[in-house]
Amino acid sequence: MTQNTETRTVTIERDMPHPLDKVWRALTEGSLLEQWLMRNDFKPVVDHTFKFTADWGSVDCRVITVDPKTTLAYSWEAFGMATVVTFTLTPTGNGTSLRMEQSGFPMENDQAYKGAQYGWQKFLGAMEEVVAGLD
Question: What predicted TM-score, i.e. pTM, was given to this entire model?
């Protein structure tokens, strides 16, 4: 029996009417991350291992890429499944274009894939509120 190695990716793109600096801060400052995502001990340093924690449990992560104000990627391991979350920022005429991809969902794990689609929409909406409140 061969194992299915195909995976799916959740991709969400949002145009935010906020400067790149503020969006980057919301992605990389632990206190701001906590406001829109989860409690954490995140540091924007390649190979830094950290956890996101919530009432339902935790996510084990490791920073993979930090390209200031352009790209941030980290591994995301929860419920026996390993995925990678990548944020890509692009300046636009009136703010910042944010692209979030979470890749590596096994084809057979529809529940996790659909949960991520729903969850990230909610998280990114909350992130936009946090960014709007920054000085």
Answer: 0.94
Which bin fits 35, alpha (ψ -120 to 50), beta or left (φ > 0)? alpha
Handedness of CA 60, 62, 65, 67 (dihedral sign): positive
Query: Would you mind telling me the total number of residues written for the chain in this entry?
Result: 135
What's the CA angle centered on 83, arms 47 and 117, to 5 degrees?
A: 130
∠ CA 93-98-99, nearest 5°, is 135
Structure tokens at 24: 């980057």
* pLDDT tens, residue by residue, 14-45: 999 999 999 999 999 999 999 999 999 999 99
The second-level CATH assignment, the architecture, of 18-132 is 2-Layer Sandwich (3.30)
Q: Where are the chain's structural domains?
A: 18-132
Q: Has residue 3 got a pLDDT over 60? A: no
Q: CB neighbours (10 Å) of residue 26?
A: 26
